[in-house]
Amino acid sequence: MPDSAVNVNLREAKASIRVSTKALVDYHDLVSALQRGPHVPASASYHIVWSGNQGTQHVVDPVNRFVSDVIYDSAQMEWHARNSIGFRFVSDPTSTSFSLFAQLAHERNGAFFSS
Amino acid sequence: MNDTPQPSDIVARSPVMRPYVGHEHFWERAFSRRQFIGAAAGVTGALATSAIWFPNIALADGVATAAPRPIPGGIQPFGPGTEIFHVFVPGKGAEMSSIFDFDGYLGVAVVDGTGKAYAPGSDTPMPLVFDTDMRFMKGRYIGLDGERHRGTFAFI
Fold first, then answer.
1. Bridge partners of A56?
2. Are A15 and A9 in contact (CB under 8 A)?
3. Which residues are CB-contacts of B65 (< 8 A; sequence separation ≥ 6)?
4. How big is the CA angle at A113 (ends B11 and B155), to the nearest 5 degrees?
5. CA distance A98 to B51
6. Mutate to test the interface with A, among B18, B53, B102, B106 (most CBs of A within 10 A)
7. Cβ B112–A61 below 8 Å, yes or no?
8. DSSP designation for A94
9. Residue-level pLDDT at A34
10. Which of A14, A91, B13, B147 minimizes the number of CB atoms within 10 Å of its CB?
11. B140 vs A contacts (CB less than 8 Å)
12. DSSP label at A72?
């Protein structure tokens, strides 16, 4: 995806990502995917929006070498996908989805880590 | 004997990820509802997980010019000594990036919802729910080539 697919405005705790017809493979289920089992070509498009500010956290983890300024917020999405054998999935509109966990952050890790 | 990971195993058996008490819902559900959609014609209430579509844990986009370095840690869903997947379960205070030597914006969305599936050759909708763990990483990074780059990556 091009950089323009992702828009972030941390000051307003907002972001979005829009991906169109991304080539993927369909492993049928997660276990199969983790085992790199049988799969077929597929493609997916999705749109996710983040908004709201439900709290912030400054995380410093010297063990895993990352520092992150986090905004916990809410996200919603819609997506559709299809595979090469003709199976299709179309989600209901964005407004019908519900957020279980969402965050936006600015993070530095590894060589960019400093506490 | 069944060697297939059970729902509770996916997180509990992962020694690498133990430092975090993450949001386990997605991963537990993803493993427990593996009766997915493709061959489930006529079945309702199945689950569409985004992970079934995933190409890689960290999906490099077509613009990034060098592969990023994965984070050192991660989960071992199949137990000690097995492959490490360089990602942590979502949770407050956890490392949410799947790439290392990274400086930039990061977004995580664990989102559930509903939708409709269509079996091959059919226009008859089957109601399904979905359960996703979606992320992006956008910024500068040091690639496996040792050079600095800018890029945008997605975890789906």
1. A71
2. yes
3. B143, B149, B151
4. 45
5. 18
6. B53
7. no
8. G
9. 82
10. B147
11. 112
12. E
- CA-based torsion, B29, B33, B39, B45: positive or negative: negative
What is the nearest CA distance from B115 to chain A, expressed in angstroms? 4
Question: CA torsion, points A2, A6, A9, A14, in degrees to nearest 10?
Answer: 170
* A109–chain B nearest CA distance, Å: 5
| Ranges under pLDDT 50 in chain A | none
How would residue B26 be classed by pLDDT, with cut points 50, 70 and 90?
low
> Whose CA is closest to B96, among A93, A74, A103, A24?
A103
CA distance A1 to A47: 13
Distance CA A95, CA A98 (A): 8
Nearest residue to B69 via CA among A106, A111, A66, A25: A111
- pTM of the predicted model as reported, rounded to 2 decimal places: 0.80
Any A CB within 8 A of B127 CB: no
Q: Does B20 touch chain A (CB under 8 A)?
A: no
Three-state secondary structure along B95-154?
A: CCCCEECEEEEEEEEEEEEEEEEECCCCCCCEEEEEEEEEEEEEEEEEECCCCEEEEEEE
- ipTM comes to 0.95
Measured CA to CA, the distance from residue B87 to residue A40 in angstroms comes to 24
